[in-house]
Structure formats: structure tokens, C-alpha cells
Write a structure and sequence with these properties.
Chain lengths: ~325, ~325
């Protein structure tokens, strides 16, 4: 059954708002910020066939579309506040919209944030645009530019399962059913590390979320901070499923995988134990995987003390791939 | 020449930011709000073939993509602050991106606002998602819900030229070359009425921007306010070009045209002269086109004192058309 644009907004996405002064249904949403805080804003556009497969369950897609945006707030150490949603799709179908809205709004509720505005329109493929807003005290946001020589490099969770799932979908490798479901969940249902981002305020010197792959995203931090990095191959956290794949697949997935939505952050070595205890407080596993070195040394991954050859591995780029 | 995603952001869209604490190039942008103000947020997604024709000049498209968002802030009486941009497109081409960015950033500069974040990605057709942020003192935003019986109904500028241009593009009617260029400019280069929106704070009782056509958008105000309206056909402002078209085309363009991005607002009759003088101060023509009546009377358009038959005219809906 086809729904009109305004019916659609009202039926699936309009909710009473508590924190926002005015939500969906006027020309603008109005938001109250906590006095003295800065506004943190991030935006992501997900396109069918590029960022998600048409096989994904709508509920998971709704979850992921918001999760990747919350992940950006997490990387800034910002506290989520509200978000807007733009949807472009060939048809407005209830069987898609209802579970999509459920997945989206369940994650929103889990983080205490509200959908405050949106736009729905026709279009040849499904496109989901989300802009998320959060707040952070002035000077406390985690930036990419704060890494200093001697800082330790950390990542949360484990890396590479999303890429492994993508390769299994593509038929490049095969996985047992249960293993496939587990890595598929990593790809389709990432957990944005919002609580960790907040816990790292004042502890981490720099942070970024891992969306385009470890080497590429770490590269952004290194360029912004004017430093180099040495990563220990053995220390990179991987799931038991990824850990039994070939060395080549492990490298591809761990170093350039993308879509992990874990946090990569740096912190002075003196904060080592406090980082561990803060991460434990928010029930998020973190692993120290290397250290920041001088810019001249570039980006090196060592295995048994020798530098890995990183040629042929490159970060994902939407217009180069 | 194909550009990588990060080159593209840096080359065309990265600008030094003044007002924002941190602009394009980190996980989030950080913005300082004026203390005590509320944040106003609006988002719009423009899809090729739906919201614009592939024949539009990239510079005009850049202008329009931001203009339609600023128009939402204008309708709320909010002062523009910053915006984010998401672009999905088949190829990253300089011959498109350079003029597109020029048109977009020229309008941004004219309104003193900054591009603070974005996302670029591949996709089958050009999609442009913009989220615009502004600020407004608590309680002063213009809402759709404030119209009261006896209020006068006003519109800015003139209506219907964008629809006339669309029909000329479709071949439904033909226009002399110069006339075509003029209405085409109305369709492709709307002027968001930001200054008027600010001038109407404290004067207007309700406001909306005319994006989906007069009847449809006025209908939103009437529903939100729980009132009816009587419009005078003769009073609806139209260009000399539209004024010489057939009665049927005039009705279609003026009443359901869409894409005008003028403001429709209501104000107590006692504010009549102050509305006129405030509009003159910001050099924006406004016309009183009717009045708010009791909800039971619905929405009526009168011509020579008799109600027009509005059957067969309906507001544009992206999923019903």
C-alpha cells in the first residue's frame, strides 16, 4: 500500500518529544542546548548497494543508519541530543517502513535521543541521510589532531568482522552458518561507542571512529596530528572467527576492513590504567595496539618485530574503489 | 578526472571557519550558539529527476539546494548559523563540483553561514542532502500553529512562476524566450526570505514556506492552528508572465504550484501597517491575500465574491504524484 508523504512522516516517525522544544511537523525543529555546551554535528548518507546490501533486514538497517552517525558523536566525546532523517526511496511501503522505524527508534531510545525533523521523497534507490546533533563542553571534544609522540594507540571491541561478512556475502570466502550470522551481525548491527567516547573525555588525546578501515582512519589522525604510528599486528583485536582465517584475509579485514564503528583513540601512556578502568566502567573492551611515533617514521605495522609490507592494502574510498 | 572522496571534500568544500569552533574534517563539527538561544534545525533531500532537472546549471543547483533549506529557517524566523552537506553521485567530476560548490558557498556567504560538515559517496543519481542550523530566542520562533480567527494571511513575492517554468520544460505550454528565462530563474534560483522571517518575529502569528504549493502548505497551517481560511483569488500576487496565461494555468500555478520558496504567514489585522513597513525595511514585497476564519468554513478561495471550485487541484506529494 502506497502512503502519502505526510501520512508516512506522521505514522512511523512522529513521536512526542520531551527534550526538544518542537519536533517533527513544523518547518524547523527547535532544540534547547544545555547552557555553556557546544553543539557537535555530524552527517552521513547511506546509499543502497554502496553502504548496505538490499538483503539487509529493514530493522537492522534502521539501527545501522543511526548507529554510524552516533559513532561520529562518540568519536568526538559528545553526548547525543537529537537527529534528523531524510529518506529517498522508490516506494513508500509499510512492510519496509514499519520495521525500519522500529530499528531506528529503538536505538534512538537506547541513547535517549529524539527524531526532530525529516524529509521523505521518491528516488530510484533507497538513500538514508541522517544528521545527528550532540553537545560537549567547550575544549573537551576529542579531536583527530591531538595525538602526541609517545601516546599509546587504542581500539575498542574487535576489528574486521564486518569486512569478513561482506566478503562472505560476495562469495570470496565461505563461513559456517553460525559464524556467518555472527559476523553478519557485526556488519549490520554495529554498537556505537557513545559511552566510551564520554568516558574518554580528559583521558584520550585524539579519537576517530573506524568506518573506512584501520589504516585509512589512523592515517587521518596522523595527518591531523603531524605524527607517525607503530602498530603491533599481534595486538590487533580480532574475533575467534576472523582469527582462524588465512593471514591474507586477516590483514585485509583488520587493516583495511571498514564498517567496524569501533573507536580508535590515543592517550598518554601515563593514562594507561585509567583508560582500562574507565572502559571497564562502561563495559567496553579496549586494547592497546601500538604507539604514536615521530612523523618521519610514517605508519608501520610490525609482526614479530619486522615491518609488514602494506603495499596493495589501501583504505576504502567511495570514488576510487 | 575522478577525485577521491577526501580530495574532493578538501578541494571544493573545505573553508576556514570563523564562527564554528571546528569545521569540515573531523568526526563532528563543533558550533558555538549564542547563549540563551534555541537551536533551529531543518533538513531537505533533493533527488535528480524529482526535485531538479538534469539540465540545471550546477551553480544554480548549488544555490537552490541551500536556498530551500534556508527557506525553512526563514519560515521559523530563525537566524542561520551553519549547514552540513551530503552528496551522493555517480562520478565525482570537477566540471560539476566546482560550479556547484561556487553556487552553494556564494549563497552561504551571502547569509553569513558556514559549511561545517559533510559526506560524499557514490550512488546511481545525484542526491543532495542539506541540514541547516540556526538560532532563535526561546518563544520567538514562528510556528505553523499560531494562526487565529481574524488574522490576515500574507504571502511574500509572487507565486507560481516555478511551476510555469516546469510546465514549459515539460512542453505543456510555450513561452517567449525572455519570459522563459525569467520563470526558469524563479524555479532554479529562489531567494530564501530569511530577512523577512527575522523581521516578522513578534509580528506574525504563524508562518510556513511555500514549497509544496499554496493550498497544501496553507492547509498545514490551518490543521496545526485549528482554523480555516478565505483567500481572495484576485489578491494572489503573480508575475506579468503568469498573469497573461489562461485561467486554468494560473489556477494550477498559483494554488498548487510548488517550489516558490516564498513565505506564507498570518498576522493580527492590527499589525497590518507594521507588517508592510517591516517588509519594506528588508526590501521584500508582501501581499495580504485573505484572512483566517473558523475551522468549520474550511479553505475557500473566492473570485468576485464566489467560491472557486477547488476539485481537481491537489497539493504535490512525492509518493502520490
Amino acid at each position: 500500500m502506497a502512503l502519502g508523504e505526510f501520512d508516512l512522516i506522521a505514522r512511523y516517525f512522529k513521536r512526542p518529544v520531551a527534550r526538544a522544544a518542537l519536533g517533527v511537523g513544523d518547518d524547523c525543529a527547535l532544540l534547547r542546548l544545555t547552557p555553556g555546551q557546544q553543539l557537535a554535528v555530524s552527517t552521513d548518507l547511506l546509499v543502497e548497494g554502496r553502504h548496505f546490501l538490499s538483503t539487509v533486514a529493514p530493522e537492522r538497517l534502521g539501527h545501522k543508519a543511526l548507529a554510524v552517525n552516533l559513532s561520529d558523536l562518540a568519536a568526538a566525546g559528545a553526548s547525543p541530543l537529537a537527529f534528523t532523517l531524510s529518506l529517498s526511496m522508490p516506494r513508500a511501503e509499510e512492510r519496509f517502513l514499519e520495521p525500519f522505524a522500529q530499528g531506528l527508534l529503538a536505538l534512538a531510545e537506547a541513547h535517549g535521543i529524539e527524531l526532530v525533523g525529516g524529509d521523505t521523497t521518491g528516488g530510484p534507490v533507497l538513500c538514508i541521510g541522517i544528521t545527528v546533533m550532540g553537545e560537549v563542553p567547550p575544549g573537551q571534544a576529542l579531536l583527530r589532531s591531538g595525538a602526541r609522540v609517545g601516546d599509546e594507540i587504542w581500539v575498542s571491541g574487535s576489528l574486521g568482522d564486518a569486512r569478513l561478512a561482506l566478503e562472505a556475502f560476495r562469495g570470496s570466502l565461505s563461513l559456517p552458518g553460525e559464524a556467518f550470522e555472527q559476523v553478519r551481525r557485526a556488519m549490520e548491527c554495529p554498537s556505537p561507542r557513545v559511552a566510551l567516547g564520554l568516558a574518554l573525555r580528559g583521558l584520550a588525546s585524539a579519537a576517530i571512529d573506524l568506518s573506512d578501515g584501520l589504516l585509512g582512519d589512523l592515517g587521518h589522525v596522523l595527518r591531523a596530528s603531524g605524527v607517525g604510528a607503530e602498530l603491533a599486528w599481534e595486538a590487533l583485536p580480532r574475533s575467534a572467527i576472523l582469527g582462524v582465517q588465512s593471514e591474507a584475509w586477516q590483514r585485509a579485514c583488520l587493516l583495511t576492513g571498514g564498517d567496524d564503528y569501533e573507536l580508535l583513540f590515543t592517550a598518554p601512556a601515563a593514562h594507561h590504567h585509567q583508560v582500562l578502568s574507565s572502559a571497564t566502567m562502561v563495559q567496553t573492551p579496549v586494547h592497546c595496539v601500538g604507539q604514536i611515533v615521530a612523523a618521519e617514521r610514517g605508519l608501520v605495522v610490525t609482526q614479530n618485530g619486522a615491518a609488514l609490507d602494506l603495499q596493495g592494502l589501501s583504505a576504502f574510498d567511495h570514488f576510487k574503489s
